[in-house]
Write a structure and sequence with these properties.
alpha/beta, Aldehyde Oxidoreductase, domain 3, TIM Barrel, 6-stranded antiparallel β-sheet, 6-stranded parallel β-sheet
Amino acid sequence: MKELKTLEDVKNFKVEQDRLFYSASHEEIKNGATTDIYFIKTMEILNHMGLAHTEVVAEVFPRKPGIMCGVEEVLNLLKDKNVEIYALPEGESFSAKETVMRIIGPYDEFGIFETALLGILAQSSGWATAARQCREAAGDKVMICFGARHVHPAVAPVMERAAVIGGATNASCILAAKLLGRQPSGTVPHAAMLIAGDTVSVAKAYNEIMPPDSPRIILVDTFKDEVEESLAVAEALGSALEGVRLDTPSERGGVTKELVYEVRKRLDQKGYNHVKIFVSGGLTPERIRELSEAGADAFGVGSYISGASPIDMTMDIKVVNGKPVAKRGRIPGITENPRLKKLK
C-alpha cells in the first residue's frame, strides 16, 4: 500500500471486503488511511500552489492537564520523515496549553499525519492520566490495569501500556505486557470456580499446576460469604496462599471498606497475617483510598482507566519559512518550553 497523498490516491484506495476486523492495520496508519480527508485536500491545494514543501514549525498543546503518553508511537509514525521532533518524555506531567511537542520540517513531510498524531497523543495521555490518579491513590501498593475487556482489542495493548506509563504496576493484557518487556499479571476469573463448582478445589489445582512465579491469589466471592471462602482457601493452601481477591458484584453492594476490614481481621485472627487482600470491581481513586485505609493491599483497576476521556490535543502552525504566524486568538511564533527534549 502506498502513502495516500492525493484525492486520486484516496479514490483508488481499496479495502478488502473480507477483512476480519474494522481496526486500522499498522500499514494503513503509516500510509495515511486514518487521516481526515481535509488534510489530503490541503496537500492538493498546496501542491497546486507550489507550497507543499514549505518549511514550518508546528506545535502541539493539550486542553487540560495530564500525563504525557503516545510519544513513542508518534516517533514511529514519523521515523522515515525528514523532520525534527521535540517533546515531553512519556510519563511527564503537563499543564493546560503547555507545548508538549514541536515538529520542524517541510509541511508535506508530516501534514497528512496530524489526525493520527493527535489521536495517538490524546487517547494515550487520557489513559495515562487516569492511571496516574489511581497510582497516587494507591501509594506504594500494587495497582494492575484490568481494562482490556472494556475497549476494542485493537487498542487494548495501547491502553494498558499507557496505564503502565501512567503508574500501573503491570498489565493483564498479554500483548501489552509483552510490548513492555514484562510478563502479564492476573489471577483467575469466576468462570473457573463456576465450572468446577467449588472455590477450594480450584485453589488447590492452581497451587499444584501453576509455576512458582505465578502468585497464589484466589478469588473468594463466587459461592459463599467472602470471609468464609477466604478462611477455607487459607486453610487449604496455608503458607502458599499469597492473597485473596475480592470482586463482589454491585448486586451485593460491591467491595466495601467494611468487607475489607472484616476479611483482614478474620484472617489475622486465624493466623493468616501473611495473606494479602486484592480488590477489584468498579474502582476509582476515591474508592482505592478508602479501601486501602481499610486494609486492602492491591488493586485491579479496569473501567476507570479504560473509560478515561481523551485529552484534547491541538496542533498549530506557528512558523512559516522562518516567519512567526498564528491563527487569530493565538500568539505567533514558537512557544518556548525548556522541558521539551529533542527526540528526532
